[in-house]
Amino acid sequence: MEERYYLDTCIWRDHYENRFGKTGRPLGKYATKLIMKILSDKKVILFSEFTIRELRKDLTKEEINDMLNLLFISGTLKKVGISEEEYREARKISKEKGLPLGDVLHVIISRNNKAVLVSQDWHFKKLKNLVSVKAPEEIN
Fold first, then answer.
1. 4-138 belongs to which homologous superfamily?
2. What pLDDT shows up at residue 2?
3. 1 pLDDT exceeds 60?
């Protein structure tokens, strides 16, 4: 089976905006390096409509298209759907664990699509029993 990665929205923004962490960590550099590695290794990046919805809070449709087009054209980027069952499960876990619904939904989508979830967000550490979670700089 092909190796798959599901990038949390923060990773897309780190890459596009070349962001730095509060302590000066070069988050944008880590994200871009990972995306380039996935592209050169001919692996797959998954995304969902929920990722696009989150990106639209801070980026225009044109900016999002600019960011994703090369990956689409190369066949690296693949869209996955979200079922009602996945939404229900995410809502349940979100309430039980006191975590943001969006974060839990990303976990469920990653798990169900057998993908490594890539994020810098600490929320995901509480859900690592459901899916493999790694920061971009942890992927060799």
1. 5'-nuclease (3.40.50.1010)
2. 63
3. no
